[in-house]
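Something for you to look into today, if you have time. Could you write out one complete protein record for me, on any chain you like? Leave the record below and I will have a look.
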Amino acid sequence: MNKKYILSMDGGGVRTIASITFLKRLEQKLGVKIHEKFDYFIGTSAGAISCLALAVNKFSTVDLEDIWAPRNLKKTMQSSSWELKLGLLQSNPKYTNEGKREVLKKYFGNSVLGDSLKPVAALSYDIEKRTPILFKSYNEEDKNISLVDVGDATSAAPIYYPSAKVGERYLIDGAIVANHPVLHGYVEAKKLFPDTEIRVLSIGTGLSKRSLNGKASTKWGIVGWLMHDLFGLMVESSLDHELAGELIGEHYLRVNSPINLVNRRLDDRSTTNIERIVEMGETWWDDFGERAIQLLTT
């Protein structure tokens, strides 16, 4: 039976560098560019931006690393007036989206979704209609949407960035509904490639397993929950992984692990933390590399 290969990439801020580290090793081992090997790409937030670069720009994994280089992370994380002061949160997002859009413009220029050479999808969320939005390169209504707008919308993480306006819609990070978008991708791929064996490689960005104080949590308000990584708790559910495993079976591989020494916060771009993120990606290769090769070559 004919086979099609699906790449799913989670959101996770700077921790997406671990995903790219794994893909870099995979690309070297396969001897084939990632954009050539896979037939369908889907991502959320940072993972979606990488998928767009693969499917539209035909980036190598070295090119992907450049998107997340320190100079770009610094520009992407331009502070607004957000701060914690006297137990009160100011009303603005932590960062503006101006630097982020500038970086997206640098890599995507005036490209639109319809320029993609292979099917690609990016997950976002419409806050007015309270519904998920799946931007699809193969959807006629989405083809003329700029990649800058798509990248801005899918990565507009609440608290960190302002909502993104795309057309008349106000959109936020797709992690609100599925930081791990594998099920959306599998359903879409089944529609695009009927009567085909679908094989799925899904790459995470690490799981925070830090225990929280249950008794103390009974007294947390908004500040308490924000200080204890409310957004991280929302996006790190393993349910999608468990369902995908049951649905896809042996043709599905999930690459992920606890973050261990990596900072759980999505915006720690310190040299030490980035080094730890790269190390996490290298560990994933040691743990999952052979299985990934087998999934993609047998």
Summary: The first helix runs from residue 16 to 30. The chain is about 45% helix and 15% strand.
